[in-house]
């Protein structure tokens, strides 16, 4: 497993490793949205990735980076969302077992998706302590390799491939934007931009109800969220040590947005671009709309992180 911050050769190797498994997702534009924003926006649509989110890239790279010996015993993680599905599918495609610890209150649709990919789901209480304790027990019992949802360099290198594709397709961008939760996507994006297009700024969007990254960056140390509360349920996690180190070095700014701003941005994409995106994926676009004057006339890449949304509970 990768022990150092991924360099360009690691990111390129990750891309090559996963390329036959992932979808090379499209980059969409909308003249109406460009007019509203006053900028030229390129949406990298990871909502069309396998399992409906960028998370499959990192999970796939992590699984493929294991030794033969490690693979035999399988992989394990705790997640109630897209990482669970990403790891379950990556394990299935490589014919290895996957053990996913999920809180009892995780949406049935997510649990069923993980089961559908052939993983074993282990229930736990809806607390971080219970998730970690249950996972520890599973790892001990099965000997499975723990794949962290974001605080892992193989995961980060895999997520970095999304912005690599974006830069290769669009050429020089003034800004690239991504959402931030645990920081796997943002740190991977920041690394790629620094290595391939250092003049490009990296700006993150973060929900005001889960604003640990914003405060951590300001303080110069990790300040975890306490009781985060936002419609962007994919961004509730606090930064990890590895993601924080990269983000504090290479991210230019984090813009906080309210749930109302997230919903408005999400709705605009649904209505104008006719694509399904989840609230977390709308966060960087919401950040751009909130501070439009910063981006006037610029070429902006935005990573749409996923499209896994419960259609029975749309916020509009």
UniProtKB/TrEMBL annotation:
<feature type="domain" description="Tryptophan synthase beta chain-like PALP">
    <location>
        <begin position="18"/>
        <end position="306"/>
    </location>
</feature>
<dbReference type="Pfam" id="PF00291">
    <property type="entry name" value="PALP"/>
</dbReference>
<dbReference type="InterPro" id="IPR000634">
    <property type="entry name" value="Ser/Thr_deHydtase_PyrdxlP-BS"/>
</dbReference>
<protein>
    <submittedName>
        <fullName>Pyridoxal-phosphate dependent enzyme</fullName>
    </submittedName>
</protein>
<keyword id="KW-0663">Pyridoxal phosphate</keyword>
<dbReference type="InterPro" id="IPR001926">
    <property type="entry name" value="TrpB-like_PALP"/>
</dbReference>
<dbReference type="InterPro" id="IPR036052">
    <property type="entry name" value="TrpB-like_PALP_sf"/>
</dbReference>
<keyword id="KW-0460">Magnesium</keyword>
């Amino acid at each position: 497993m990768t022990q150092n911050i991924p360099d360009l050769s690691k990111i390129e190797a990750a891309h090559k490793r996963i390329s036959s498994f992932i979808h090379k997702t499209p980059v969409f534009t909308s003249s109406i949205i460009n007019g509203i924003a006053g900028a030229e926006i390129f949406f990298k649509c990871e909502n069309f990735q396998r399992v409906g989110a960028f998370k499959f890239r990192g999970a796939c790279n992590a699984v493929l980076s294991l030794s033969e010996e490690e693979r035999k015993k399988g992989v394990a993680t705790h997640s109630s969302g897209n990482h669970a599905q990403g790891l379950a599918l990556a394990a299935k495609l490589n014919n290895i077992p996957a053990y996913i610890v999920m809180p009892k209150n995780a949406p049935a649709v997510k649990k069923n998706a993980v089961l559908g990919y052939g993983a074993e789901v282990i229930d736990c209480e809806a607390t971080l302590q219970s998730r970690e304790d249950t996972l520890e027990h599973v790892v001990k019992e099965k000997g499975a390799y723990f794949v962290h949802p974001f605080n892992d360099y193989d995961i980060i290198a895999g997520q970095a491939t999304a912005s690599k594709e974006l830069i290769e397709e669009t050429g020089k961008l003034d800004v690239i934007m991504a959402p931030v939760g645990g920081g796997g996507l943002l740190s991977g994006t920041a690394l790629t931009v620094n290595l391939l297009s250092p003049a490009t700024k990296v700006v993150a969007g973060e929900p005001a109800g889960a604003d640990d990254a914003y405060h951590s960056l300001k303080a110069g140390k990790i300040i975890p969220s306490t009781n985060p509360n936002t419609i962007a349920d994919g961004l509730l996690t606090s930064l990890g040590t590895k993601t924080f180190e990269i983000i504090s070095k290479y991210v230019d700014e984090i813009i906080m947005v309210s749930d109302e701003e997230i919903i408005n941005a999400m709705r605009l994409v649904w209505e104008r671009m006719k694509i399904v995106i989840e609230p977390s994926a709308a966060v960087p676009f919401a950040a751009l709309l909130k501070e439009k004057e910063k981006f006037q006339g610029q070429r902006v890449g935005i990573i749409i992180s996923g499209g896994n949304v419960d259609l029975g509970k749309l916020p509009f």
